[in-house]
UniProtKB/TrEMBL annotation:
Keyword entries, A-Z: Acetylation, Dioxygenase, Iron, Metal-binding, Mitochondrion, Oxidoreductase, Transit peptide
A GO cellular-component term linked to this record: mitochondrion
Protein name (Swiss-Prot/TrEMBL): persulfide dioxygenase
Organism whose genome encodes this protein: Populus tomentosa (Chinese white poplar)
Top-tier EC class: oxidoreductase
């Protein structure tokens, strides 16, 4: 079973009063997108309003995201990946819209800019900073895969998405008819639009002589090295377009065991000992 933690929230016991929601003004001075997410078919979502803004920091080309439950009396809000240079801008927007900023969150330890979370906390001390435990950095709250970050009646789920950095996580809006649809995933640098974050911070940052022992091999190889893979890996030596094309054209079949293996492996293989393993040897 998936381990779910819900972070304790100061606002969790307050009820939702949709009629008190107030439409924030759209300020054209910001590079923003406002989305009062609609779920026409969802009765559960009907009385809820997510405010969403995409903000931009030009020197590092970083997006910061502001989310708030504006149907909630306190309008609790959070910022994902704020930048120090634009912290004042973000806080002005929060104030202008009458929001209560409760969390300043990072997807990972950024290498190209200084996070705005520290600065924001000095200006609004009640704000709690959040980052993954796997990032090995400091914050008020260290989250792990499966945790939920609640703001008003909305929440973000945490998914581990290492690769660019070890502690990279993706924050996904909640699943369920009372949560915004379509769901939104804040991927940090793990997945970029038509690209992905660089991987040389991880495996390819190891010494070239490091031995590589993979989980699978389909051609009879047993071991390689970082240097060898940097030079000869037929996928990772290509440019982005070619890499995408190769991956899109792999056409691998649906793994035979996936429906049994995944649920079972989520509980270390001990899902239900009365169920006999399926014989797939003839497939
Ligand atoms: N020129 C920038 C750094 C650009 C860069 O390396 N971006 C990273 C994400 S920030 S560490 C990345 O993963 N890029 C992937 C890509 O496809 O560009 C600077 O010096 O700050």
């Amino acid at each position: 079973m998936l381990r779910i933690h819900t972070l304790r929230l100061p606002l969790s016991n307050l009820s939702l009063i949709s009629s008190q929601s107030q439409k924030p003004r759209l300020n054209n001075n910001y590079r923003t997108m406002m989305n009062y997410t609609k779920a026409a078919s969802s009765q559960a979502f009907k009385n809820k309003k997510l405010l969403f803004r995409q903000l931009f920091e030009k020197d590092s080309s970083t997006y910061t995201y502001l989310l708030a439950d504006v149907a909630h009396p306190d309008k609790p809000a959070l910022l994902i990946d704020p930048v120090d240079k634009t912290a004042d801008r973000d806080l002005s927007l929060v104030k202008e819209l009458g929001l209560k900023l409760i969390y300043a969150i990072n997807t990972h330890v950024h290498a190209d800019h200084v996070t705005g979370t520290g600065l924001i906390k000095t200006k609004v001390p009640s704000v709690k900073s959040i980052i993954s435990k796997a990032s090995k950095s400091k914050a008020d709250l260290l989250i792990e895969a499966g945790d939920k970050i609640q703001f008003g009646d909305f929440f973000l789920e945490v998914r581990a998405t290492p690769g660019h950095t070890l502690g990279c996580v993706t924050y996904v809006t909640g699943d369920g008819s009372d949560q915004p649809q379509p769901r939104m995933a804040f991927t940090g640098d793990a997945l970029l639009i038509r690209g992905c974050g660089r991987t040389d911070f991880q495996i390819f940052s190891l010494p070239k002589e490091t031995l590589i022992y993979p989980a699978h091999d389909y051609r009879g190889f047993t071991v390689s090295t970082v240097g060898e893979e940097m030079q000869y890996n037929s996928r990772l030596t290509k440019d982005e377009e070619m890499f995408k094309s190769i991956m899109e054209n792999l056409n691998l079949p649906y793994p035979k065991m996936i429906d049994i293996a995944v649920p079972s492996n989520m509980v270390c293989g001990l899902q239900d000992l009365s169920v006999k393993p399926v014989d797939t040897s003839s497939n």
